[in-house]
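Entry type: protein chain
Record version: 2
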Amino acid sequence: MMAAAAVEEESGGSSDSGSTAEEERVRRLFHTCDGDGDGYINRNDLLMVCRQLNMEDSVAEIMGQLGADERGNISFEDFTLCRMQLLNEIREEESQLSLLSSDSEERKPHENSLGVLSTSILLFTSP
């Protein structure tokens, strides 16, 4: 199981403690979602987490956003890629909103289920 091996792999000697701390948070987030500990997030794993956050109706959407494979599994690698894409989208929207903040037409940032789930879980798993 390649994802399980990747989850167990130590950080590759990076001297950047900021990126190491971020990598550890992502690993904790993945492990929190991987309820059965098999190295993948599947529909049942995600459903358990979403129930705790009253987001059961969002499971299918989140599975699609995370790029579940044909068996309905999400590897750590896919999870990390999707999370990075989401963070980039959030930063871009925050940048656009800061430019619009002086306008009378303030807009609410786009929220998707994956963003809400990720943010909620990170709050619970942060030190």
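Comment: Residues 76-100 form the longest helix (25 residues).
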